[in-house]
């Protein structure tokens, strides 16, 4: 499966008292009408139960220069938000500064996906900065860069 190139996202939300988040490569647009996304979350995730309990999450599409954020949010435990520049999205989920785009979602459903949960989210709003930022990519077990050279 590593031969399929993916973008890298950090899914964030608010836990009972603190912001929560995790790196997620298994993310995609699902439907335009109604607007929905799909993501796959490990059943071992500590962050997802706290995020889903709030009902809302934000998908932060990481930019090429945000490898360190991807690595940080891929780890279990610790204060992943310490020293990270972020604010709250309109629905109250952490929105990471410098991302290529952000997508505010409401949890629609969760389905059994074996060792993962398949989460469907209703898109409530989304935005990207006016100055386009190249995305962070992952391919064959490592980060990759988009080469727009003709």
Automatic annotation (TrEMBL):
InterPro entries in alphabetical order: Flavin_Rdtase-like_dom, NADH-dep_flavin_reductase, Split_barrel_FMN-bd
Protein name in the entry: Flavin reductase family protein
Keyword annotations: Oxidoreductase
The family this protein is said to belong to: Belongs to the non-flavoprotein flavin reductase family.
Pfam family, one: Flavin_Reduct
Organism of provenance: Streptomyces tricolor
SUPFAM superfamilies tied to this protein: FMN-binding split barrel
Keyword check for Cytoplasm: no
Domain of life: Bacteria
Presence of keyword Oxidoreductase: yes
Domain Flavin reductase like: 1-145
């Amino acid at each position: 499966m590593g031969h399929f190139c993916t973008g890298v996202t950090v899914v964030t939300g608010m836990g009972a008292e603190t912001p929560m988040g995790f790196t997620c490569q298994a993310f995609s647009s699902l439907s335009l009408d109604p607007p929905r996304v799909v993501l796959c979350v490990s059943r071992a995730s500590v962050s997802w139960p706290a995020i889903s309990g709030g009902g809302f999450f934000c998908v932060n599409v990481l930019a090429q220069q945000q490898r360190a954020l991807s690595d940080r949010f891929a780890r279990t435990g610790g204060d992943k938000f310490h020293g990270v520049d972020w604010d709250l999205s309109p629905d109250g989920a952490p929105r990471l500064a410098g991302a290529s785009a952000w997508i505010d979602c409401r949890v629609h459903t969760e389905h059994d996906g074996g060792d993962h949960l398949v989460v469907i989210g209703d898109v409530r709003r989304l935005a990207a900065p006016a100055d386009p930022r190249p995305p962070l990519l992952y391919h064959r077990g490592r980060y990759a860069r988009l080469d727009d050279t003709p």
